[in-house]
Recover the amino acids of this structure.
């Protein structure tokens, strides 16, 4: 039994064959999934997937570097979105300076608004950080993100960043990147993160793990992430599957497995 803690089932690459995607997920022992919101515009489609399938939940939020909405979500709007019973988290939110030039204060303000919504709703955060780890951890501390906890999704940072997040009560989620041969530092982090603070994900349709690297990703492939972590730690695959599944349902308290 595995849970894909972060995927994008509304994206065209997956939604075009959603019955097949969900069938292959089941065939590979992936029993549940969390599909993630990235824009205000597409949130209704994200929510619709979660309402249509009892083993899928969703989040509510706007990706850190997403600008297509043309406006910022207000605190009240995020709270309204996040109040839906199929919404179990706020995000993905955070900071991403990788492709952004000039002033980045708008990102930090967006992040703060998401954290405040999560605290009001008492729902955990799904946090994305890229080229912005120091600021991400700082804003989390300043806004009290640890009060609701959450997950650092698709983690690619250092052990020190992982420690800083875990000190605030956050989980660390590994994607297919951990299976890449050149991800030596990340593999070491995967060896060190306590099992009780770990999740696994695909971030599909992106970042397909070995042996599917370069192809469209899907939730069924999360098993390869768990297999890699088990191999790195010298433990049974079943131990990783059981721990990450338990962690998912403990963290996302509003998700109730059938």
């Amino acid at each position: 039994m595995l849970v894909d803690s972060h995927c994008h089932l509304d994206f065209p690459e997956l939604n075009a064959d959603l019955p097949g995607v969900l069938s292959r997920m089941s065939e590979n022992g992936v029993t549940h999934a969390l599909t993630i919101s990235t824009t205000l515009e597409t949130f209704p489609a994200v929510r619709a997937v979660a309402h249509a399938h009892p083993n899928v939940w969703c989040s509510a939020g706007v990706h850190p570097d997403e600008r297509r909405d043309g406006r910022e979500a207000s605190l009240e709007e995020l709270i309204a979105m996040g109040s839906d019973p199929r919404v179990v988290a706020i995000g993905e939110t955070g900071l991403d300076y990788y492709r952004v030039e000039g002033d980045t204060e708008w990102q930090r303000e967006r992040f703060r608004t998401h954290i405040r919504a999560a605290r009001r709703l008492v729902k955990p955060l799904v946090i994305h950080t890229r080229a912005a780890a120091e600021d991400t951890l700082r804003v989390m501390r300043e806004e009290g993100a640890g009060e609701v906890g959450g997950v650092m999704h698709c983690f690619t940072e250092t052990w020190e960043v992982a420690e800083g997040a875990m000190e605030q009560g956050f989980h660390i989620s590994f994607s297919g990147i951990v299976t890449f041969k050149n991800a030596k530092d990340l593999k070491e982090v995967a060896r060190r993160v306590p099992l009780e603070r770990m999740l696994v994900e695909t971030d599909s349709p992106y970042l397909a793990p070995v042996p599917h690297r370069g192809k469209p990703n899907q939730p069924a492939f999360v098993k390869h992430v768990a297999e890699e972590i088990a191999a790195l730690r010298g433990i049974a695959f079943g131990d990783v599957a059981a721990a990450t599944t338990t962690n998912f349902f403990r963290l996302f308290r509003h998700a109730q497995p059938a």
About this structure: The CA atoms of residues 54 and 67 lie 31 Å apart. The chain has ten helices and eight strands. The mean pLDDT is 97.
